[in-house]
Design goal:
Number of strands: 0
Distance between the termini: 39 Å
Radius of gyration: 18 Å
Strand content: under 5%
Shape: globular
Largest sheet: none
Length: 147
């Protein structure tokens, strides 16, 4: 077994130990793609995987609105409470950071590995969610002065 497969297996193990199904499933799927020699899928995943993931994440976030769980009056009232206004501001900041992160990751592929490892470790060890690379890259872009 090659080192890349061992790393994927180790990260899947971290997901199992930390009871994080999303990391475990993602690593096992990538490992299966790798060992079944379906490697022609990887360029497609690298090119479209992030976009597909963001679409699925957006569907999940917007589902309460689409299902009627969150009404128009609830959305309207969110402009009347300071916590909701703060949530709107933070949502805008995170979206901005994510945009900067996409640009930084595209322009500096050498930092992608560190961001990915840090995100996977954060998900596995701290029960985070794997949206971290974009936001982490956005924060990093602010720190190193690149957009």
């Amino acid at each position: 077994m090659d080192i890349t497969s061992l790393i994927l297996l180790g990260m899947a193990g971290l997901g199992i130990v930390s009871n994080n199904t999303s990391i475990s499933v993602a690593m096992v799927i990538l490992l299966l793609i790798r060992v079944t020699r379906l490697t022609q899928v990887f360029p497609w995943l690298e090119k479209y995987g992030l976009t597909i993931g963001i679409i699925i994440l957006t569907i999940g976030v917007m589902s309460p609105l689409a299902s009627g769980t969150i009404s128009l009056s609830t959305i309207t009232s969110s402009f009347l409470h300071w916590q909701s206004l703060l949530a709107i501001a933070i949502g805008m900041l995170v979206a901005y950071l994510g945009g900067r992160g996409v640009t930084l990751m595209g322009n500096n592929p050498t930092i992608v590995a560190g961001l990915l490892v840090g995100t996977v470790l954060g998900v596995a060890l701290f029960r985070g969610v794997p949206v971290g690379p974009l936001i982490a890259a956005g924060i990093l872009s602010l720190l190193i002065g690149k957009s």
